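Re: [ENG-882] Designed sequences occasionally contain unexpected residues at chain ends

Forwarding the minimal case from QA. Structure tokens:
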């Protein structure tokens, strides 16, 4: 399986990092070794002093498809969950300045903690979903899918023009504003529509 991530899909987050608001989706990938499941602890790597949390809604691809038309894209995902796109912001910043790829900042082991997945038909409106992240009991990120620049169907249509999507692939759909540093000892809890899905510590 593969993990496709969307960058800058919420305007306020693009602005907080002084990035332009994109006109087409910005994508990058993480390998399957980035996955961290079952709320296991995240071990802070020693190659970065500025690992940031990015709370995101994650789509699980339900069947193989390429060149998927936007109007049929809803058939290609049945479940959604939450994930953290851990980012070594210090490494990313250096690589951005030099115009280099982001993999070292984004694709390291366990940089993609994910929750369990929930059938999408359990939600009344996928574009009115509230999700938020608490860091040591304080809300640090708060998003609503009504603020997405590119909705889920658009992302699936866009990505599948270039990359065949397969059953079990994950799409991280971008983070709202409020990203920030995590430290050893921190406790992260992520909620989707009030339901606690992520709950783990940084070790
Ligand atoms: Zn992200």
């Amino acid at each position: 399986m593969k993990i496709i991530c969307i960058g800058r899909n919420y305007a306020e987050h693009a602005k907080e990092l002084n990035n332009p608001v994109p006109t087409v989706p910005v994508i990058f990938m993480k390998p399957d070794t980035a996955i961290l499941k079952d709320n296991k602890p995240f071990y802070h790597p020693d190659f970065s002093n500025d690992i940031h949390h990015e709370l995101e809604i994650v789509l699980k691809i339900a069947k193989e498809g390429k060149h998927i038309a936007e109007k049929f894209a809803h058939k290609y995902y049945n479940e959604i969950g939450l994930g953290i796109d851990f980012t070594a912001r210090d490494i990313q910043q250096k690589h951005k300045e030099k115009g280099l790829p982001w993999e070292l900042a984004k694709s390291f082991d366990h940089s993609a903690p994910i929750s369990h997945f929930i059938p999408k038909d359990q939600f009344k409106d996928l574009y009115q979903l509230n999700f938020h992240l608490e860091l040591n009991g304080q809300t640090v990120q708060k998003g609503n899918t009504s603020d997405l620049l590119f909705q889920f169907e658009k992302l699936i249509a866009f990505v599948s023009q270039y990359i065949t999507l397969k059953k079990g692939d994950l799409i991280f759909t971008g983070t709202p504003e409020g990203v920030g540093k995590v430290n050893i000892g921190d406790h992260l809890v992520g909620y989707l529509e009030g339901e606690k899905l992520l709950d783990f510590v940084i070790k």
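QA comment: On inspection the terminal residues look reasonable. Residues 5, 7, 54, 56, 85, 172, 174-175 surround zinc ion (CB under 6 Å). Proposing we downgrade this to a documentation issue.
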